[in-house]
Amino acid sequence: MTTLATQVSIADALTTVTPDGLPFRFTAYDGSATGPVDSPIHMHLATERGLSYVLTAPGDLGLVRAYVMGDLEITGVHPANPYEFMRMMLNQVHFERPTPAEALRIVRGLGWSYLKPPPPPPQEHLPKWRRTFEGLRHSRTRDKAAIHHHYDVSNTFYEWILGPSMTYTCAVYPSLDASLEEAQYEKYDLVARKLDLRSGMRLLDVGCGWGGMVRHAAREYGVQALGVTLSAEQAHWANEAIKREGLEDLAEVRFLDYRDVPERDFDAISSIGLTEHIGVRNYPSYFGFLLDRLKPGGRLLNHSITRPDNHFRSTGAFIDRYIFPDGELIGSGRIIAEAQDAGFEVRHSENLREHYALTLGAWSDNLMSHWDEAVAEVGPATAKIWGLYLAACRVGFERNNTQLHQFLAVKLDGTDAHFPLRPTWLS
Length: 427
What we know:
Strands 7-6-5-8-9-11-10 form a seven-stranded mixed beta sheet, sandwiched between helices. The N terminus is likely disordered. Helices cover 43% and strands 15% of the residues.
């Protein structure tokens, strides 16, 4: 084993790739250190395995692997809500790719043996090239596997994070002091008002999660509501909730691919948080299917995470491997264009970016409140992944790396949109 301290220290190597310095204290098992001594936040690389993770998967993936496995320790923030650390990492730390000569010097100095990659954490999903054995990207088989990876963790675990509404999509805050539950109610009600739901109507909610929109439409508006999800755990929980609320005559959730819904002539369709899983190249068939399931004059409300531009780029390795395998994001302009090309008339669009940052903060608070129970339920590694994920996404929405768009569209009845002259959902 190469003696590290006599050649290149870990802190020296880190300083080479972060020329602007670090806003927090960094120490390593070799005794080296960098960054402000008085920082309340401290990162410690504790093991040689952790160094191998970082060297063999540069960028966020290697850091996440080391953190999940306990080889990289972060103190000064709670693992359920490392928001201040992630804000520093994303706003203040600038990584610069070393020159080939610098990279060679660093690797020689640290030791070639660290270039053998350790096994990844068991929570990590397969790389994209390995997923081809599960089927082509966004095939039915592979979509089902991706949804299972993320949504079938544990209903109990989700209850602790999401709260009583069991709603895993952006809330709409009527005021800054509103509770998460009030904001989720407002989100569902905004969707209902935009769709102009009324008693006796038929609603299809695709990618319905734990049935929040289905139950809201049935309970508050007397709508006959059908939800579909690719998560068996979600479907089971949703139907139990429907029974508890006595809504069996109006509401139903099926464990079903939305493409297999046989019914037609719905008055309205809501899609809340599904578009991210569809795949951009599948937008034509997605919107074509939804258009086909609506009656003339029927409305579609599409609610999804978006990019601030319409340039396609891959999702980061951490999100793809640990959170949303095969997820794809694009700007609202591309999504709206695809809906229009499929035959919809788009009537309204709004960006709720700030609302998602607030929502993620509330979820982080919930996870912190139930941290011990969460660790007991899913294990420390999965709990840490979720803490990191929620905090990183919150910073992403605050930085305008990601946005959240709702757009309202209609299947024209000839040339009649069945719309009033001015919006009715704002009152």
